[in-house]
Amino acid sequence: MANSSTKEVESILAALPMFRQVAAAQLHRLARQAQLRALAKDTLLYERGDAATGCHVLARGLVKLSLRAADGSEKVLRLVGAGESFGESTLFDAQPQPVTARLLADCELVFLPAPALFELLERNRAFARALLANLSRRIHVLIGDIEAYSLNTGAQRVAAYLHALADPAQPAPARVRLPANKTVIASRLGITKETFSRLLHELTAQGLVEVSRRDITLRDPPRLAALARGGAPG
Question: What pTM, to 2 d.p., does this model score?
Fold first, then answer.
């Protein structure tokens, strides 16, 4: 790999919390073994059942991780944004990819091959702990998703999702943008696109949001948060 690419990969990795305790020499060695990839929107990165040979770090763009049923319906499990990693869990059990990964925008990714990560894990205990912490956070998110799908209404899920998009430091009204189209967001929330559109309309009628395509203004974030928790929005 060219020196300029190695430096770019080092910079991308150094910004991730799980690599912050990695010594410069170790990070440089990992970056030399990594691959920097620029891929176009709609590229299929891998399918469920493909061999898992490493993990990815997303430097720019948006990636959809999903499952597809025999009837063609899709369940979006996660939307990966810039500065996030994915695919780590498959490295440790020699199992194929459990999900399909497709690019929802033009992306720049770093591919980290499994042997390079195993070498770093053996040499750096702090990195091992950071990687475990990262995987633990994913488990907590998954538990939260299961709880939401099982116990919360569609309105609660939409309210919680919109509220989570906003910067807590931003004064009301807060403006957010859906990272993907409504079909993808609806699947991520476990509802249909039609239900998602209806719930946005209801939130608009209640004076909680204003919707302009993918741009949404949160007119009253505290009331939206109350609705997400199951309280009355009024």
Answer: 0.90
